[in-house]
Amino acid sequence: MSRHLRSEHGLGLEGEEGSSGGEQAQLHGYASDMPGAGMPFIYNRDRMIAEFGKFIITDEFPFSFGESPNYEYFNRAALQPQYRKVPRNTLKRRTQQSYYAYRGYLMEMLRTYDGRVSLTFDTWTSTYGEPFEFVTAHWIDDDWLLQKRIICFEAMEEAHNGFHIKSCLVSCCKNFHLVDKLFSISLDNATANTSAMQFLKEHPSIKLVLNGSLMHVRCCTHILNLCV
Predict the structure, then answer these.
(1) What is the C-alpha separation between 153 and 47, in angstroms, rounded?
(2) N or C: which end of the chain has fewer CB within 10 A?
(3) Is 192 in a helix, a strand, or coil?
(4) CA distances from 35 to 1, 9, 140 (A)
(5) CATH architecture under which domain 116-227 falls
(6) Residue 136 pLDDT more than 60?
């Protein structure tokens, strides 16, 4: 296989003396689904910062992680000699740009989606005691695959009551073009959630199935937790 790659594709396997041109070309994931499969690696700092931002967010590292001298040394010594520190402000700005770009893509995708979307609503408290509210959208795509995306994650600046929850849900539906595509909303059994559903049924801009009789779905996990 290595002979074929050298002669036909100009690639050398890692650890071998280089391929055509006298230089070693690294083969990254040639037979896998990893990025860069079957192509020589070309370092691009803009691409690196974009992918590094995804890593920081998904693994919940602080933005200052990119300024670590030890992490810079590790990258330059073992992975990429051209690597340089990523300042926290640069990383924060780029991740915000990525967020707004994907948010715009998601808005447009849901705007053109021809089907019904279900929502789940819940609250979350950070380790610092700060309350947040979030809304997740669930739908079936054209390939009959279940999709879900968080479309709202905001700090709760008002009282946690039915009217405020209703306002949050209406705002999400308007921002993501779901006012005429809403099917159901799953919430736990808090009294504020029940009153929010009643407020939502009476809201003039929300188009509901069967006058909202199928809209309010009580969270089964929460019910089982109460039983236990």
Answers:
(1) 27
(2) C
(3) helix
(4) 21, 18, 27
(5) 2-Layer Sandwich (3.30)
(6) yes
